[in-house]
Amino acid sequence: MQIREILTLKSDEIYSIAPTDRVESAVARMVELGVGSLVVLKAGEMVGLLTERDVVHGMVEHGCDLKDTEVSAIMVTDPVVANADDSVDYARDVMTKSHIGHLPILDGNKLLAIISFHDVARACLKEANFENSLLKRYIKHWPE
User: Fold this and answer.
1) Any idea where the CBS domain is (predicted)?
2) Domain 3-138 fold
């Protein structure tokens, strides 16, 4: 299964914020949207990624009061990315090895989406269930 197949199940909307916006507004936006990450865009280009984890790390690094801190101070400037044609197994492996929960998906240089580890896990379970049902059909008299 390719990452592109996961994208068909997701909204095309990419939630973003500017690097000069304050962390306070970024957190409020994440809460309002019910998401765990925001793409950081400058002049329409991805310059970073801000996740809940980055906010927590920023609190340790800069103190608990981040409300006046710019997003650029705590965002990841070179996030791990994947391509739409990469396998879901690749996404799972890179996310696990990199300890990340959100993965920007590119098609060439164009940002298509952000997928979460939850999206990847759901896709892996769907594929495993499909394979399981095929195997059960193959084996005669499998008890249902």
Assistant:
1) 9-66, 75-131
2) CBS-domain (3.10.580)
Q: Give me the amino acid identity at 39.
A: V
The tens place of each residue's pLDDT in the chain, 144 residues long, gives: 889 888 887 878 899 999 999 999 999 999 999 999 999 999 989 999 999 999 999 998 887 888 889 999 999 999 999 999 999 899 999 999 999 999 999 988 889 999 998 888 787 677 766 677 767 777 766 666
Name the amino acid, one letter, at 90. Answer: Y
| Spatial separation of the C-alpha atoms in residues 144 and 142, rounded to whole Å | 6
d(CA 80, CA 143): 44
* Domain residue spans of the chain: 3-138
> d(Cα 44, Cα 3) in Å, to the nearest integer?
23
What does each C-alpha distance from 1 to 7, 43, 74, 87 come to in angstroms? 12, 33, 34, 6
pTM of the complete model: 0.81
